[in-house]
Design a protein that fits this description.
Layout lengths: L17 E13 L3 E8 L2 E8 L9 H9 L5 E10 L14 E12 L16 H6 L1 H4 L3 H23 L3 E2 L17 E3 L7 E3 L5 H9 L4 E9 L11 E10 L3 H20 L9 E3 H8 L13 E2 L1 H4 L5 H8 L3 E7 L7 H13 L6 E6 L2 E3 L8 H10 L7 E7 L1 H18 L10 E5 L4 E4 L4 E4 L26 E6 L2 E8 L4 H10 L4 H15 L6 E6 L1 H8 L30 H7 L11
Parallel strand pairs: 3-5, 6-9, 11-17
Antiparallel strand pairs: 1-2, 1-4, 2-3, 4-5, 7-8, 9-10, 10-22, 12-13, 13-16, 14-15, 14-16, 17-20, 18-19, 20-21, 21-22
Length: 595
Amino acid sequence: MKRTHTCGQLTKNDIGKETTLCGWAHSRRDHGGLIFIDLRDRYGITQIVINLQGVGGEHCSPLHQIAESIRSEYVLAVRGKVEPRPAGTENKKITTGEIEVAVSELQIVNASKALPFEISEYVTISEDTRLENRFIDLRRPEIQQKLLLRHRVCKAARDFLDKKGFAEIETPVLTKSTPEGARDFLVPSRLSPGEFYALPQSPQLFKQILMISGFDKYFQIAKCFRDEDLRADRQPEFTQIDIEMSFTDEEEIFSVTEGMFKDIFKAGLGLDLKTPFPRLSYKEAVGRFGTDKPDMRFGMELADLTDDLKSAEFKIFKQAVEAGGIIKGLNASGCAGYSRPQIDNLTSFAAVYGAAGLAWFKVTKDGFDSPIAKFFNSDLQAVMRKKLSAKEGDLLLFVCGKPKIVNESLAQLRNLLGKELGLIKKNEFVFEWVTDFPLFKYNDEEKRWDCEHHPFTAPKEEDVSKLDKDPGSAGSRAYDLVVNGSEIASGSIRIHDPKLQKKIFEIIKMTEPEIEARFGFFIRALSYGAPPHGGIAPGLDRLIALMTDSESIRDVIAFPKTQKGACPLTGAPSDVPDKQLKELGIKKINEVPRH
């Protein structure tokens, strides 16, 4: 029987029609002479009714035997007539809820073994079990809707970029190992024993070469690979919407990106995003929120009180400032009722991010209530009130120490309080651009400069002269797009001058032989008339996770890896026969136990 309709298609307008449906038996209910089955496919559910007495009341033995044997997740094909559901039994929550199909023919296309878990979004099951049986997990409507949203987002991005004149061009998956901030996945070459390909961390160099080649508008929904420690928003293989343009600047890239996101959110969620997105400099973002990816759905901004409180009698503050540190605080408005154990929990939370302690003050009608209030005179308390807009009933929290630790611990504390206090609205998306990043960050362990983004990011034109004597003061033409506290896209205007590109490599301590071995082909390409160019790469997995309010990007990838980089479904990574290793010229030096 070839299906004529899907299980989410029929409505009361189809009453009286003959139909053929195919799908899975989602649930089965036996009411004596009637058997009801919810038939499911990815489009929805249709209730089918099997009358065991047959049309006209005669006993229908074949239909009876088939219907009695049906169990959960059997694949069925049914033919019958669309009828209205009896009054009072309608289900207004689904498209097909006003009809049912009276079955005249029924076929079990395939049986199913007993399931390891139910096909229900309300069932709580372990992630390992779900991923091991992903072929069943993917039948869950909740997961299917996320993957279908992913499809709509990709289509909206493609359609938008196509209309803007962008060409979709694929770049290699087997490429050269080049340092881009994470470990490469290496692939041994059988034809060149002892040598390796690398899987691309991004299409960075190839998309720049496409600009050099005259393709002025490129995009690709690109697979990327990074061998790094995993967490909820990381996977060893991930996808980004890769975009690059020639003869462009930041304003054009912002405009194109905002237009694409408007179309994505309209097609995906039916939401109208307000553009242009607000902008913050890196310095402003860290100053106000402690992070370069602030969640701006709520306030609770940080205040720097270093100069104001360094004269306090409180030794910890004074010593921190004398050691080159800073003092910052935030106002947990209305939280003066927090108990000591609750405040201790906040202190322990801040300690995870390096904070040596958490100073606190409850604002009462009589002044500041705190074990350390005596070290702060009325003038200093007045300053704290003013800078943090404090009022009676508020709880003021402070951290002192190295700027990085102070900012990160307070930023994380702010996010925690935002959730605990219900300051974050559901289904709200607040975008902002973060711009004017520093070009370099200092690596204390290795005593050298690292690139803040990547070594192909252009410095601000007015800062090129600083590179020789003071590279740490140079700004970059990099920018991030942040939504709800998550970096959703990163990009920059690129270096198109080969001499400047070599200088950046030299500043990060790459030798001339290393530059030639790793990037010689790219430097040569830049030497043959490279246009000015730049781009951006929104992370598709992270975007879909945000749009679906998923806790992990694993929920929006069809076949994800675990946090240990394993695939429970297939058993990858796995051993390979010694014969294959011999062909590749590889010998295992010892057996490493799998965890």
